[in-house]
Amino acid sequence: MKLASYFGIATFAVAICVGAKPTQAALVNYGFSVDATSGDNPGQYYGSFQYEDSTLTGIGEETLGVSNGLAIAFDYLGTRYTETSDFDYPLSPVVSFTNGNLLGLSYLVEDQFFIGDDPGNPNRGGTKFSSILSADLLSATEVGRVSYSKGQPVPEPMTLGGSAIAGVMGLCLKRKKK
């Protein structure tokens, strides 16, 4: 009889693990590298960003920002820049998509750089890296390119919690059985 109740508890724990997905959202991670080939600071520079993808539809032009969990870390010339370094924070930076495909970041740090395809359209990300004076987008001079690589999605906390509960209960059942 005890075995049946233990089996019921284990089944419940597995159901929590599998069924506890209130959303299908995940934190999506990207790494990026800048290859600056001209200008005052040629070299390779690296960064990463992540966002929460629950509002993406994969249809047409879409943009996600800080309100979607966009977080950036970029090391440039010995300084670490984050999303709060953007000139228009918290409205920017943004990451852009077309039909679910990443176009890239749009990220402006005053007196330093602009990442994006078109300085005239700072709400659309891209693959160009430009040096910039002040926050004047008309002063942007393209000095390199940005490439992006997708990382593994981060699982939802409920999935991790449910897995932990199921694992602990399984160990308890195994221990009591001996």
Question: How are the secondary structure elements laid out?
Answer:
Blueprint: H1 2-19, E1 27-36, E2 43-52, E3 61-65, E4 71-76, E5 79-82, E6 94-98, E7 101-109, E8 113-115, E9 128-131, E10 141-150, H2 157-177
Antiparallel strand pairs: 1-2, 1-10, 2-4, 3-6, 4-5, 6-7, 7-8, 8-9, 9-10
Helix pairs in contact: 1-2
Q: How would you describe what is shown here?
A:
The chain is α+β, with helices and mostly antiparallel strands. Helices cover 22% and strands 37% of the residues. The protein has two helices and ten strands.
Summarize the structure.
The chain is of the alpha+beta class. It has helices at residues 2-19, 157-177, and strands at 27-36, 43-52, 61-65, 71-76, 79-82, 94-98, 101-109, 113-115, 128-131, 141-150.
Percent of residues in helices comes to: 10-25%
Mean pLDDT: 81
Low-confidence spans: 10-17, 19-23
Q: In what range is the share of β-strand residues?
A: 35-45%
Strand arrangement across the biggest beta sheet:
3-6-7-8-9-10-1-2-4-5
Distance between the termini: 16 Å
The ordered H/E elements are HEEEEEEEEEEH
How many strands, which pairing sense, and closed or not: the largest β-sheet? 10 strands, antiparallel
**3D shape:** globular
Characteristics:
22% helix, ten-stranded antiparallel sheet, single chain, globular, 10 strands, 178 residues, alpha+beta
